[in-house]
Design a protein that fits this description.
By secondary structure, this protein is α+β, with helices and mostly antiparallel strands. Helix content is about 35%, strand content about 15%. Helix 4 packs antiparallel against helix 9 and helix 8 runs antiparallel to helix 9. The chain is globular, with a radius of gyration of 20 Å. This is LRR receptor-like protein kinase.
């Protein structure tokens, strides 16, 4: 996993957020998002493409944020302000006004994975690039575990995009590594199939793929836009790995170190994988897992 550089500010007592960041009023945020250029929506809120001081930025406006959780928000923004990693977008500013919360990020021009998998995008990601993206994500798995969220004042409540949360977590609210493994498995299925988490009306992608697996229909499972430009045996191996990650029995799910090893073996060669990774290194997303 790539190392993350962390700069701490021990003198900050938590009453204010990283002073280098720009703090905006909610009125200023409202003006920024006036054009309603939506980049995406999820469980956390809506992300807008905006222009601030002549620079293009992404503004994430959170859904109604309970006033009593303000300390959580402050702690999270402080952490985001001190973390530097190639797969995390840089935070530029924030709004912390009562229940109104927003975070301003740098805009990554290459877009996000959702955009590149969209049917509206004429540039279809090759099978090798898809595997490279999955491998890079798997290797960066656990970035959040580098930090001591409890000492930073963060609770363990998870806000995520519907369709990616482990059903086993939703009810008892027991957060374990295997909950994250499930979410990664769903991401794998989305990347393999080119589909959203809900397929053909109201069928969750895990169920849809499971039926294809039962019928031995790998061609009907893999994104048809790839036009069969992939190794069928490798495709089966990746699908089986993804299905292991989303197993209804959390104890039978693999750990991420195993997932990384399997994905590495599925790539053509280490040299090819390195070249592919370079072409996708800037495809960072403002829709990364959101923990608070």
């Amino acid at each position: 996993m790539q190392k993350v550089r962390v700069e701490s500010n021990r003198e900050n007592d938590g009453s204010s957020i990283e002073p280098k960041l720009r703090q905006l009023t909610f009125a200023e945020i409202t003006n920024l998002i006036a054009e309603k250029r939506i980049l995406g929506e999820g469980g956390f809120g809506t992300v807008y493409h905006c222009c601030m001081n002549g620079a293009e930025v992404a503004v994430k406006v959170l859904k109604v944020f309970p006033a009593q959780e303000t300390k959580d928000f402050q702690a999270e923004v402080k952490i985001l302000a001190t973390v530097y990693h190639r797969n995390l977008t840089r935070i530029l500013g924030y709004c912390n006004e009562g229940v109104n919360k927003a975070i301003i990020f740098e805009l990554i021009e290459n877009g996000n994975l959702k955009h590149h998998l969209s049917e509206r995008n004429s540039n279809v990601l090759s099978w090798e690039v898809r595997l490279s993206i999955l491998l890079g994500t798997a290797e960066d798995f656990g970035l959040s575990r580098i930090f001591d969220f409890e000492s930073a004042g963060l609770s363990s409540r998870i806000v995520g995009t519907p369709g990616y949360l482990d059903p086993e977590y939703i009810h008892p609210r027991l957060l374990t590594e295997k909950v994250d493994v499930y979410s990664f498995g769903v991401v794998m299925l989305v990347v393999i199939t080119g589909r959203t988490t809900v397929v053909e009306g109201a069928t969750h992608i895990t169920q849809w793929v499971s039926e294809k697996v039962t019928n031995g229909d790998i061609r009907g499972m893999v994104d048809p836009r790839l036009e069969r430009n992939y190794n069928v045996n490798v495709a089966w191996r990746v699908v089986e790995l993804a299905m292991a990650c989303v197993s209804s029995n959390s104890s039978s799910r693999p750990n991420m170190s195993y997932v990384v090893r399997e994905l590495k073996e599925c790539l053509p060669s280490s040299n090819d994988a390195a070249g592919i990774a370079l072409t996708t290194s800037n495809m960072r997303s403002v829709f990364r897992p959101h923990t608070r």
